[in-house]
Design brief:
The complex is a heterotrimer of chains A (320), B (80) and C (274).
Chain A: H1 5-14, H2 16-23, H3 27-30, E1 34-38, H4 48-53, E2 58-60, H5 65-77, E3 81-87, H6 88-93, H7 96-105, E4 111-117, H8 133-138, E5 144-146, H9 151-162, E6 168-173, E7 194-197, E8 202-206, H10 209-223, E9 228-232, E10 235-237, H11 241-245, E11 252-260, H12 265-273, E12 282-287, H13 297-303, H14 308-319
Parallel strand pairs in A: 1-2, 1-3, 3-4, 4-6, 5-6, 8-9, 8-11, 11-12
Antiparallel strand pairs in A: 5-10, 7-9
Helix pairs in contact in A: 1-2, 2-9, 5-7, 10-14
Chain B: H1 3-15, H2 35-49, H3 55-60, H4 64-73
Chain C: H1 2-23, H2 31-35, H3 38-48, E1 63-66, H4 72-81, H5 87-91, H6 122-135, E2 143-148, H7 155-166, E3 172-178, E4 181-182, E5 185-186, H8 187-190, H9 196-202, E6 206-211, H10 215-227, E7 233-238, H11 261-272
Parallel strand pairs in C: 1-2, 2-3, 3-7, 6-7
Antiparallel strand pairs in C: 4-5
Helix pairs in contact in C: 1-3, 1-4, 1-11, 3-4, 3-10, 6-7
Classes of the chains: A alpha/beta (320), B mainly alpha (80), C alpha/beta (274).
Chain lengths: 320, 80, 274
């Protein structure tokens, strides 16, 4: 499916969760073995259309994430490609053991779609803030972790993983009227980071909603005379280490994610840089290992220092 | 084409309704004006008028009449 | 004829379990939970499960999932006695790096459908398999899942049970090895389940009860029950943990057991006398 300008804007208006509901309609055309399972999340993901149009490929398992993964694993063993949908926190946390055993140990090709990852529905409080999901998934062998930067990339990632046999976690973040990073269709490959813009002084390796925020921060930093590279690390595992190698000559490497500073993209990059004798300093930006009270998405980003201006300020402070 | 004609045309095309159905038409009155159709409508209006709408306005846009009020905020003059 | 065969297999498997446990030395094995499952597994593999030993990946096969994975030793011994695992393969049980260790590891060419060992997972896997079979219009294959009663503490079991009834899975069968003990003690003392049979019934399952150590009863109850399936069905096998060895029977602290030389000789003697 080609993604035209109209689709791009529509997806961004819908937000990544409902983009999934739209793109899901295309997935069986890419891979006829695709089935979609939800843990009572059909409405948030806009999957009513899928249910109505492809009822034999749709299963609602109710509010039961452990069963969600287990049943999906059974379907995968019998040759299907199940996309399973739940809120990111619950999709990774409540059924971690099932993901570990069925997907990491037995390599059954289940695709876990985590809705509203990060802070986007933090108005419901910390129970609905998902800032530990990448850390959980990263420590499981052989699970591919995708973290699209915007809704265009969400569509690309979903279509790419539909024809990829590997067990995968796709972290859908951002909210409705999601800022657009990719204004037209482009070449997307799982595992291959995209350098959105080049620069020499600072390299920002970002993922999810922080890609857009990093682009805006980079614009502000460039007004102050700095040359800033922004990399969209849309695949957190397997990490594109060549893209990180290309940042080694920067004065400062920054990672930015709407996720804890512990265990996510920042940690993954730090793990890669650790044994290198010569490397730039690395500033890890993310949510700083605490929960805050409920609030709107923009308020929460600000609480954790994740807005573009705050990114810019942290980077400048660190440079001194 | 006047702004009003443009607005009406986008509404009719996006929601598959006739011009007669427009006055008083509200979100969810017709099948195509559901949560997804709403975004298609907004995207088409943004395209037609070369604007980008704010989230609050997108959510507030609940009827044909309200839509005109909201677009006015983006300097769309319906008298022209 | 098949009942006698199953009885003979069960006798042999009990002896195998003793041998394998002694061989495991101070590491011990999950001997008692394996002993309680012997008759059911023997009847399943000798009689009930439709398996083609020459092609264990046949699409039309029955699928068997040992959700109480710690009874892997019993499973391997039964599979050996019916000709699926070779003597050499069985002899590698619990060797370092062995494909046949405590908990079954997925090995589809050998008929081991899934890796189990984390309790509470197997029924969901069975539900998924059963749904997939129905979607493919495979009305031949059935999915059998063996659970322990202690395992039914796990909430995941009930998520799966509820969904099985919701999806009307008349190709899904559970057997509960109801030996009334768990690791720390008697089930009634640790986490009283009340009437487990009633709970399955209230979740929409057809419930049968059987003497889990009486091969003829298992054979008859299951054969009849399987003919009449209109939805997911559970066979509660009333068993004794450690069945067959006097100093282990009914003792909760033999969940993992080590056999001294003396105990090994005693166990062998008791099994010879049967």
């Amino acid at each position: 499916m080609e993604i035209d300008r109209q689709k791009i804007r529509m997806y961004s208006l819908l937000g990544s969760h409902r983009t999934f509901g739209q793109v899901a309609l295309e997935l069986p055309k890419i891979n006829e073995k695709v089935v979609v399972m939800v843990a009572d999340q059909m409405s948030p993901a806009g999957l009513e259309y899928f249910r109505d149009q492809q009822p034999d490929k749709f299963i609602n398992i109710g509010i039961a994430e452990q069963n969600l993964i287990g049943v999906a694993a059974g379907l995968a063993k019998e040759g299907m490609t199940p996309f399973v949908v739940a809120q990111a926190s619950f999709a990774t946390g409540r059924c971690f053991d099932q993901i570990k055993i069925n997907m990491a140990y037995m390599h059954l090709g289940v695709k876990v779609v985590g809705l509203s990852a990060g802070l986007s529905i933090g108005q419901y409080g910390a129970t609905h803030m998902s800032v530990e999901d990448v850390a959980l998934m990263r420590c499981l062998p052989d699970i591919v972790i995708l973290s699209p930067a915007d809704c265009t990339e969400t569509a690309k990632a979903l279509m790419a993983t539909a024809e990829d046999p590997r067990p995968t976690y796709i972290r859908l973040s951002g909210w409705m009227n999601c800022p657009i990073v990719y204004k037209k269709d482009y070449d997307y490959q799982i595992g291959k980071a995209i350098t959105f813009k080049e620069g020499n002084d600072i390299a920002i390796i970002a993922t999810g909603p922080m890609v857009y925020n990093s682009i805006k921060a980079a614009e502000m930093l460039e007004e102050e005379g700095l040359s800033v590279k922004v990399v969209d690390m849309h695949t957190i595992k397997p990490l594109d280490t060549m893209a990180i190698d290309d940042c080694l000559s920067a004065k400062l490497v920054v990672t930015a994610e709407e996720h804890s500073v512990i265990g996510g993209l920042g940690s993954a990059v730090a793990e890669y840089l650790a044994p290198k004798a010569i490397k730039p300093p690395h500033l890890i930006i993310g949510t700083n290992d605490r929960y805050v009270n409920a609030g709107e998405y923009s308020y929460l980003q600000e609480q954790f220092g994740l807005t573009p201006i705050q990114l810019k300020n942290q980077i400048l402070t660190n440079l001194k | 084409m006047t702004n009003l004609e443009k607005y009406n045309q986008v509404m009719c095309d996006s929601l598959q309704v006739s011009a007669e159905q427009l006055p008083g038409l509200k979100y969810q009155d017709v099948e195509l004006w559901d949560s997804v159709g709403h975004m298609t409508l907004v995207a088409n209006l943004e395209d037609a008028f070369d604007i980008l709408m704010e989230t609050d306005d997108i959510i507030d846009f609940s009827s044909y009449e309200k839509g005109k009020e909201i677009l006015a905020k983006y300097d769309i003059d319906f008298s022209k | 004829m098949s009942v006698i065969n199953s009885e003979n297999i069960a006798k042999q498997v009990r002896k195998d379990i003793v041998e394998l446990t002694y061989k495991a030395g101070t590491h011990g094995t999950h001997i008692s939970g394996s002993l309680s499952a012997v008759e059911v597994l023997s009847v399943l593999y000798n009689d009930i499960l439709r398996l083609n030993k020459d092609n264990l990946t046949d699409e039309n096969r029955d699928r068997f999932i040992l959700s109480k994975g710690h009874a892997g030793m019993a499973l391997y011994a039964v599979m050996n006695r019916v000709g699926i695992l070779s003597d050499e393969e069985l002899a590698t049980f619990k060797d370092n790096g062995s494909a046949f260790h405590t908990h079954p590891k997925m090995n589809v060419p050998k008929g081991i459908e899934f890796s189990t060992g984390s309790l509470g997972h197997g029924l969901s896997l069975g539900v998924g398999s059963a749904i997939a079979l129905k979607k493919r219009n495979n009305s031949t294959s059935r999915v059998f899942v063996m659970l322990g009663d202690g395992e039914c503490d796990e909430g995941a079991v009930w998520e799966a049970a509820m969904s099985a009834a919701h999806f009307k899975l008349d190709n899904l069968i559970v057997i509960i090895d109801q030996n009334q003990l768990q690791l720390d003690g008697k089930i009634v003392d640790i986490m009283d389940q009340g009437s487990l049979a009633d709970k399955w019934k209230s979740f929409g399952w057809k419930v049968y009860e059987m003497d889990g150590h009486n091969v003829a009863d298992i054979h008859q109850t299951m054969t009849e029950g399987l003919k009449k399936m209109t939805g997911p069905t559970v066979f509660m096998a009333h068993t004794l943990k450690g069945k067959g060895i006097s100093f282990i029977e009914g003792k909760y602290n033999w969940h993992i057991g080590v056999l001294t030389q003396e105990q090994y000789e005693q166990a062998k003697k008791e099994l010879e006398e049967v």
